Amino acid sequence: MQLWLKLLFSYLAVICATLILAVGGISGAQHVKDSFNKVNREVIPHLLALKDLRYAGLRIVSSSMEYAFLTTVTMEEQGKRRGDARQEEVRLIEEGRERFLMSLADCRSMLAQGREPHPIERTGKALLTASRDYLAVVDARPSARRLLDAKERFERAEQEFLKEVNSAHDQEMETLGRHVAGTFESLTSALKLLAVLSAVAIIGALASGLAISFSISRRMRLLKEAALQVAAGRRDIVLPVTAHDEITSVSMCFNAMVERLREYDSELDAANSYLDSVIATMPEALTVVSGDGMILDVNRATELMFGYAREELVGRPFADLFLERHRGEALVATVTGSAGLVEEEAMLSSRDGRQLHVSLSATMLDHNGAKERFLCLSHDVTKRKQAEQEVHNLAYFDQLTGLANRTLFYDRTAQALARCRRYGEFFAILFFDLDHFKDVNDTMGHHAGDALLQLVVHRISGIVRASDTFARLGGDEFAILCSSVAGPEGAATLAEKLLALVKDPFEVDGRQIYTGASIGIVLFPEDGSDIATLLKNADLAMYAAKGAGGNQYQFFSETLNMKAQERATIERALREALDKEQISVHYQPQIQLQTGRVVAMEALARWYDENLGAVPPARFIPVAEQTGLIRELGAWVLKTACAQCKQWHLNGHPIAISVNVSIKQVMQEDFSEMVVDTLLETGLEPKFLDLELTESMLMDNAAESVALLRMFKSLGVKISIDDFGTGYSSLSYMKNFSVDRIKIDQSFVRDITIREDAAGIVKAIVAIGHSMGVTVIAEGVESKEEEAKLRACRCDEVQGYLYARPMPAAEAEAYLRATDSPKSASRLDGS
User: Fold this and answer.
1) Beta strand pairing call for 370-380 and 355-367
2) H or E element in which residue 775 lies
3) Buried-state track 151-164, b at ≥16 Cβ within 10 A, e below 16
4) Are 478 and 432 in contact (CB under 8 A)?
């Protein structure tokens, strides 16, 4: 018999038992349903009707009481509102009566007992009657005694009504309890029947299941043993097919599965072959290494990376590929002793000797349950490391010269500070820049300046020790950190060598360029205990060397620091003075020597500070030029002087005004616009403005000066050369400058009465000026003897303490009024 028939018999037994259970369950459920229907049909509606009737009766009572309260208790100021409330209560009472009558009718139909009325109907009607009587008494406004009697009758009627309603409710609840008890009794009987039937069904099912299990257990055991053999790796197992039931079908499926496994094994072998080919063609180098460090296998990428054939690598120690063999041996030990991934970077060498920077990732392999080998993935990161080195060079080295940049110099200096503090050593810093480097950029272009910097660095690098740091800090500023220098003498020796090297000319674009270096030297720890202080002091020393003429070195000293602090103090005070307009302009007359007439006034800035006292121009003008305040100061002096000169014109004194101009002002792009705007604002005619520029300033910027002066000449502004004779004027340039006056420096005027050569120089200057058609004025005249000598030299104009000291505008105007008289003019011309 087939298995399905055996199972069918057992299933039929279960089905029969189930049908019996269903019939018994349905019968019990019908009894329960009938009990619940009776409750829902008879008891529940009675309870709901009694509830509605009780609610309606209580509503009549509450509304009647409220109406009585509103009627008996009145407030004069709220009479209208009380009347409205009473009307509302009347309405509510009528609605309540209608609802009460409806509920009473429902209860009468449910609780009727023959011909006699039910007590609820009787007491309900009595309650309605008592309510009407009570309200009638209230409306009649009787005595309190009558009102109380009516209220008591009403309350007795209410109590009797509620008593009957509650009694009916209790009877209905008893009925409900009887029905529920009957329902539970039916339910208990049904459950007992279900339990008996369930036991019969379970016993039948167990009996049929045991019979079937016994019949198929033997064949299933054979199937299990065959499956275990297949799981162990055998693929030649075939189960016999003797019967024609479901187990036979399973055996046939098992045989088909074994055949399919044989096919899968063949496909897996093919896939492994394909995987081997993929690994062989991977771009990443793969190396299989044994636990003792011998190469077991490699792919094609490994052969290409290192230049060896596979046969040459297999069987060779893996550490042989490393540039440092001990690094390879250490990697093998680390990987074999680790359970996870090991990553490392190392230098390996190829067959042709190339050094490769390789990133290695290695992990142990599980081979037949044992970890006796590991796989190493090698990635050539040589190009990446080269790129990182380039980034490092960009961050720490100057791209033009190849020297250390400011960042690296600061780092090396910090290391030197730490070392010297620890071991009590000292070091020196030589801070220098090139003299006249700006001239090279301006005249030959920045490419020539860059070439010059490269040549300078190449020449100086030969005297810098390997332990020292030679850095370019920016522009043409350089610094040399000299560690373990032999005291100040050693630093001075290096500075002298450096000066000697840069003194020789450099050839750039086929031209010989001469330059020099201004060097500031600081020593640790004498001149500072941190980088910022050392470099600040070195900068002060360098500018001291440059201020002394350049092409020399200067050690930092406290005097330089004091001068720097003084300069900073003057700068702060000068800024405050400009903000508060504490600068004043004094005027010194310029006299025509032959007539004694005042032809011009020179405007001179004067400054008195509460803390510094009277600060001479020689102290604050250089500070203003260095800090950029000269722009604001010069513009203010020019505007003030032009406005004062215009005022003098209005007062009848048609003289010119002479204003000194700094090189820092002239080099400003908007200087010419500022002069024009000042003339337009003050209303002064350009021919009355005389700009004084020093001889050295014009010659240092000859090309720019010619164009600027020609522009001013086209406007009508006069140009004077101050301190003439102290520079290195070229007469051809002087002619191109088209100046109007030259001013002889006071150093020649002081010596004119005591030295014949000084008188000869003055006479020559006057002759040069007259030959060029310009006026010559001498400054610093303090005695009659000097005036006589100047007359003899045919000087045109004079200026000095002999005639007047610089004075405020009011005194200057008084001086002009005084000199306008014929008597004063005669005194000035010496008659």
Assistant:
1) antiparallel
2) strand 775-779
3) bebbeebbebbbeb
4) yes
For residue 239, give the amino acid letter: L
Residue 831 identity: S
* DSSP conformation letters of 177-214: HHHHHHHHHHHHHHHHHHHHHHHHHHHHHHHHHHHHHH
Q: Yes or no: say if 491 and 430 are a contact pair by the CB < 8 Å rule.
A: yes
Q: Is the Cα dihedral 695, 697, 702, 705 positive or negative?
A: negative
Q: Rounded CA gap, 462 and 456, in Å? A: 11
Exposed/middle/buried for 316, CB within 10 Å: 0-12, 13-18, 19+? middle
Distance CA 351, CA 360 (A): 19
Which pair of tokens denotes residue 33? Answer: 């349903």
726's CB contacts (< 8 A; 6+ apart) are 695, 696, 745, 747
* Residue 659 bridge partners (DSSP): 603, 691
Residue 340 DSSP symbol: S
Under a CB-based contact definition with an 8 Å cutoff, are residues 422 and 488 in contact?
no
Instruction: Report the SS3 class of residue 753.
Output: coil
Q: What CA–CA distance (Å, rounded) separates 483 from 494?
A: 12
Give the residue-averaged pLDDT of 686-692: 93
Cβ burial 176-211 (10 Å sphere, 16+ → b, else e): beebeebbeebeeebeebbeebeeebeebeeebeee
Picking from 721, 793, 780, the residue whose alpha carbon sits closest to that of residue 748 is 780
In SS3 terms, 589-633 reads as EEEECCCCCEEEEEEEEEEEECCCEEECHHHHHHHHHHHCHHHHH
Number of Cβ within 10 Å of residue 443's Cβ equals: 13
pLDDT digits (tens, 9 = 90+) for 546-590: 878 888 998 887 776 677 677 778 888 888 888 888 899 999 999
For 806, phi and psi rounded to 5 degrees? -60, 135
The helix/strand/coil state of 510 is coil
* pTM for the predicted model, two decimal places: 0.45
User: According to the 3-state scheme, what is the secondary structure of 236-265?
Assistant: CCCCCCCCCCHHHHHHHHHHHHHHHHHHHH
Under 8 Å between Cβ of 506 and 515: yes
Strand intervals (E) in 313-391: 342-349, 355-367, 370-380
pLDDT in tens, 773-799: 889 999 999 999 999 999 999 999 999
The Cα–Cα gap between 295 and 374 comes to 10
| 592 vs 792: CA distance, rounded Å | 14
Q: Which is nearest to 662 in space by CA: 687, 688, 698, 704?
A: 698
Contact 440, 479 (CB under 8 A): no
Cα-based distances in Å from 632 to 20, 313, 635, 693: 118, 80, 5, 18
CA-wise closest residue to 644 among 743, 582, 636: 636
Tell me the two tokens of residue 190.
Answer: 């049904």
Task: Name 775's bridge partners.
Answer: 741
Tell me how far apart the alpha carbons of residues 639 and 675 are, in angstroms, rounded to a whole number. Answer: 9
Instruction: Name the phi and psi angles at 658, rounded to 5.
Output: -110, 125
